[in-house]
Amino acid sequence: MTAPPAHALDELSHTGGGPDTLALLVRDQDTRRMLLLRAVLDAAEGADPADCPPAAKRRLREDWALLAEADRAADGPRSPARTRLTYPFTGPWARRCLTALTTPDGTGELPLELAYFSALAAAAAARAGLPFATELTARDGLLCLPSLGVLRTGRSGSAAIEVRHKNGRLTLRRRGASDVHVRLEQGVGAWSGAPAWTPAHALPGLLPGAAPVPLDDLDPYRTPPRDPGRFAFSGPSGPDHAERKRWLQAWSGTAQALRTGGEQRLTETLALLRCLVPLAPPPGSDGRGSSSGTRREAFGALLSTTPATPTALAATLVHEMQHTKLAALGELVELHRAGPEARYFAPWRPDPRPYDGLLHGTYAHLALAGHFQRTALAEPARREAAWAEHARYHAQVAAALPALVASPDLTPAGRRFVDGMAAAHERLSARPAPRGHTARAQAYVKAVRTLWAQRQPPTPPIPNG
């Protein structure tokens, strides 16, 4: 893992990133994931038997061996085993296990956490076409087989499930219930006529020939633990058939909406997006609110409420893929040494932001300003609405950039990056929105700044002496 070359840093600072630069980010994140998994295995091997019993260690080694066999058996450059290990939610799982193994008294849930890895290995082996027989553990009445689906046991608590695979057919056997037979489908999902089985779902590739994109409403690690904060993620959603249809309708027009805002946006979405996670509407929104986000520990996942239109989904992708790029870049090279103190004005939030939060938000809004400027220039039917969006995002970035540029906490790489952002913002100014849109956007930002300042507690006086 090495620092990115100067040209890659420059590309990213302009909210871009060519194929080689995006591939660099992906390779680095995949490498970090494999190192994290190695750390989990090493921590388990070195753990006290009271925390990680010999049987658990032995099962972990067996699961890893099954994954290695699945990797060897697969055709093509990307095996089902590697796909599962670098899937976004293997990251949160691994971090949770590592925390449990390295924190005093943190291993209470460890057996159930490790059971997820056993199911992951079994799913990868089935995808690779390996025959096997194993025993898995359902947790809270659910056995999740990543990329395949979920078996619902109908009982609370944990339960042992015997799983056999041969020739693309899984047999799931549990005590006191009929066997469930499941047929694997190509890519994502597995079909069964049993009511106890819920298949995994996916949206078609963004372009013809592109891989399907999982619409993951099943993985137990798909959303972070609930945070009562105002800007935390809303809870996970379990979409019904009608809701999935709305996702598909929005998704079907998203490639064109992305391309209208610049070919770069389509390129980076194809390179970085690994799954979509449906979210419930935010609390108190009467079902009409929207929210979206990414998670640093789950590279490639985008969490979102159901998008209303392809245009809305495209804007969400533009926004969130910038967070994905910047988070990955921040692990390759240190951009700043600012602390976590929340003290900066961000025109898109009512609360003060830490420097890193301001950097992320400004970067995402800069990309949106460019996206809507190109849309306004290319789509006569949407011109006025797109100019209004562009003017607002452009004015917001203009208000945030001075604090970023002036920071003494920037590293040399960070200075180059922020200066590149400022230059990209200046280039957008060469094709301004019509005067009325610009004036309204600037007045809006000014009003927001005034309200923000009024809400901040007074600065305490500096004591004498």
TrEMBL record:
Protein origin, superkingdom: Bacteria
Family matches, as InterPro entries: AKG_HExxH
Protein name per the record: HEXXH motif domain-containing protein
Organism expressing this protein natively: Streptomyces bauhiniae
